[in-house]
Amino acid sequence: MDLVEHTAPQPSQSGHTSIFDVLLLGGGHAGLSAALTLYRHQHDMVVFDSGQPRNKWRTPTHALSGWENRPADDFCAVTRAQLEQTGFIRFVDQLVETISRDEASLFVLHCSDGSQWKGRKLLLSMGADIVFPEIEGYKDHFPQKMQVSLASVHAGVLCLLISGCSFHCLFTFGLEHRGSASAGILSMGYAANPFHASILIEDARKFAEIITVYTNGDVVLANKIQDTGVPDILFDHRKIRRLGSARDGPGITIDFEEGETKLEDFIVHQPPTRVNPAIVEQLGLKLDARGDIMTTPPFYETNVEGVFAAGDCASPFKMIANAMLMGANAGAGIARQLPRSITGNRVDQSSAHGKECN
Length: 358
Prior knowledge:
Blueprint: E1 17-25, H1 29-39, E2 45-48, H2 72-84, E3 89-92, E4 96-101, E5 107-111, E6 116-124, E7 129-130, E8 153-154, E9 157-158, E10 160-162, H3 170-173, E11 180-186, H4 194-205, E12 208-214, H5 219-226, E13 234-236, E14 240-245, E15 252-256, E16 261-264, E17 266-269, E18 273-274, H6 277-283, E19 307-309, H7 320-336, H8 340-343, E20 355-357
Parallel strand pairs: 1-2, 1-6, 2-3, 6-19, 11-12, 11-17, 12-13
Antiparallel strand pairs: 1-20, 4-5, 5-6, 7-18, 8-9, 10-17, 14-15, 15-16
Helix pairs in contact: 1-2, 1-7, 4-5
Pfam families: Pyr_redox_2 (PF07992)
InterPro entries: FAD/NAD-bd_sf (IPR036188), FAD/NAD-binding_dom (IPR023753), Ferredoxin-NADP_redctase_2 (IPR050097)
Keywords: Flavoprotein, Oxidoreductase
């Protein structure tokens, strides 16, 4: 891939700060996709990456054209290397602690190393954190036994699979476990919604003969799920004490408060996610019912003018392909809000210098 070289503006040594066209918070798939779009319009930008992706466990990537069975972070590394060649992008591997707006309506980002950066537009592509349920053994098995990746979402359902065999999503690793004897649906959180639970049940049934729904003490929920018309489902209403690994071979054990233990080949669950609450509060962003940042398609601008959001932080569809789509569209929308009358950019930015402000 041939990329045009350019020298991006740098923070000055005099205490002033260069004005960048765009500040991108998050160097994952959405942020990099936006950067690939923006540099084609000669926009100088900074990509901030704390190095703390939601998928920390190098799980194989599936359902991404050209990258089957390869780690997702390697995909990002290749893209980042290509972007670094353009000269339009600077990568800052620091945690952004605060975001504000100055008297000129520029966005001001303060990083953990004390550096300060200013930009005309802001893209939030920092993903979202998993909120683990308060069940002993659930989080403890990460990453050895229960792994999370950029989960596939279909029909509005985010699905996480937990197993002693280390797979996390039916669209990602269900195929590798076809022919399983049994599987469980942990019907808590989002999966406590009868409609969502019925979808997960039918998905799991494609790979396991017997499906048991664990309601963790909610007897009424079982009746609601049955009312959706899903046939041949077993229900277990006992309170769960802990999850553990099978002693021999794959599988996961469910220990109940009353003392008994049950073994499943895998468990399906839908854990909620949470967007960085400090960033949400500092910018005054609106969230939807799931806790994702609200945006307006097709360019994904938020309720705050000049702030865009893409990827896992702004969509229930937390999968790589969707993050890339949102990032590319957001990049196009941002570029259209940055004509030369605003940026002062040259028609050939190859030799441009940083634009200084006090």
